[in-house]
Amino acid sequence: MACDQRVSPWDGMTRHGSWPRLAASHAPVSDLDSSVRGPKTSVLPKVAALESNATKRRSALVTLTPAMALVLGVLGAQSAAGQPREPAYIAYDTQPVTGTNAGANGISNLGWASGTSTVGSGDTHAALWSPGNVIDLGTLGGASSGVEWPVKNNHGLIVGISESDMTDPLGEGGFSCGAFLDMHGHTCLPFLWQNGALSALPLLGGNNGFATGINNAGRAVGWAETAFHDPTCIAPQVLQFEAIEWGPAAGEKRVLPPLPGDSTSAATAINDAGEVVGISGDCGVAVGRFSARHAVLWLNGHPVRLPTLGGQGWNTPMAINAVGTVVGFSDTPGDVVNGKLAPNFQAFIWNHLTGIRQLPRFSDDVLSEATGINDFGQVVGTSFPAAGGSRMLLWQNGTVYDVNELLPADSPLMILASGDINDHGEITGFACVVSGNACGNEVHAFVAIPAPSSGQDAQRRTAERHVLVPQQLQERLRQLHRSALMPAVQPPP
User: Fold this and answer.
1) Lower CB density within 10 Å: C or N end of the chain?
2) pTM over 0.70
3) What is the domain extent for residue 397?
4) Alpha helices, H only, 54-188
5) Does 343 share its domain with 247?
6) Distances (CA, A) of 179 to 26, 146, 279, 319
């Protein structure tokens, strides 16, 4: 299905400048009046049946036609004439809640984007955007909260992390959450937002946890500390953590163990078939690095080692779509220099038909990551050029695109980094507002929807769009985006 043929809930909005926006609200907007009992909709048929037998589904995929296999391999849909359709986008500024900066990490098929936004107090809160609305999701007693991973639930359920009002008794510096938000010495709790209210998800005996994704059956994933003092931890981290799956019933949880020989695990995404991806490795500092020695796929709770691009760290799946295609980022050989990890990760795509492949990048890029994939095989991500800064990428029809080159030349936004892509082809992430030929000093969340295009239009956009991104704004982006976890990019030797 071609991108511009899908019906988008963002169609009909103002095409330039900020889209119409209502006052920030805490009113529930979920379409659920009771607990989730199972998938309501799905792009693929019979998801409920697939969920009970992922192995049978994977065997059936072997009989897919070559055309469908191309979709799984990001070789995507083509036009009626047999030629790849040239993508084009129109971007909307979703605006912060009440503060100045915001960014979106996930977008569902409802057109709802989720992420973080500064609020009037100057703190950062989890936020939800729908056409014409922005909602402050609040916190679990502390000052900060956020949705830091792509969330694709189509029933209005959101998961994320929140600072609590309890001091961390072990002084672990915010656990994994401290890399994304200021925990102010408090513990960090995984949350579920449903029907306008936040609730804490259960832990595994420790003090902290992190929620990353939730599928349409109401099963959420993430990781949580246990009570075990793990000797592979690096101060201030003390406790072991393990991947966890919550739900669908309230209070239900199960551990997703690490690979044999590893001490920790963390789940990053789940699809509607119940397949979960994540990482396995050492405790370390509870963020990336050697805690991501291995990429993992859990099938019915059992860990299966996924291939990587050959590095010893930063091997991180970010998303998995309905047919089991996984994207993320992985180090390549040579990432350990003089005994120290020197990240050199690149965006990858994996499925059981083709194995793992590095996604193409631009010639001046040093690092890259894929952050989202939809059920049509379109992938989004971010790359980091040797000269500094970042660019958002779209992989479609076997080609990599700089998303800024897919916008009109007079677009009011400059896209800075990726969040996610839904099945309408809508994308979200981090952007700046353009004034003249330069970005302003604020980072805003955006939603961009597909628009009709031709090759001639693309050449005009590429030739005309030149926007300066000030260093101050690049630093602000690093504070909001997961690129804050990464060292400064160094030019290749």
Assistant:
1) C
2) yes
3) 1-6+75-113+366-488
4) 54-61, 66-72
5) yes
6) 27, 12, 17, 20
